[in-house]
Amino acid sequence: MAHRYQAGMCRARGCSRTVRSNAYSPFCSSCTALDIRYGDPRQRRITQLEMKRPLRAVARLRKRNPHADWHLMAENWNQLVRRCQEISNSRDTDIRYRRQAANVIVQIAESMSADEVVDWTAACYIVEETNPQRFVSDRAFWCCMLHVLRRAGKSGRVFHVGGKDQLPHPPQAHEGHRL
Ligand SMILES: [Zn+2]
Fold first, then answer.
1. Most buried residue, 11, 47, 56, 141, by CB count within 10 Å?
2. Mind listing the pLDDT tens digit for each residue in 2-24?
3. How far is the CA of 155 from the centre of ligand 1 (A)?
């Protein structure tokens, strides 16, 4: 049973909107949408413009190091996809949320090649390395990376927000800043 929150101010710093009573989220609807999509209400997404240079850098890396273990990275992704396909096809109702998560990975795999996934993922890590302050937590970084992958593959609408199945992330994690 998910925790319910009392009515009051949105708990996101700098936000003065109100939260209705008995809410599933400690945040107002706008901040909840950001929390679900980007892993934290304070987190801003990685823009397409921001990805251009890092993607070019990855392309240069590939060119300069053709014999590096690129295929191993692609194979890691393929293994993950195979595992997610199993979960996705499972009829076990206890793992409904895992199955939804697995579906997201399967959708990405259907829309991009493994090499493309490696390139875009590597580019996200370059964004992070270039500007570590850019992400408020590790989870925010992962959520942004997932958002980038889904957008890059154009696998449907990027995250439906506000559906009845969607709950925000557990509140305690909001305290944790990136080290
Ligand atoms: Zn808010």
1. 141
2. 778 878 889 888 898 988 776 78
3. 28
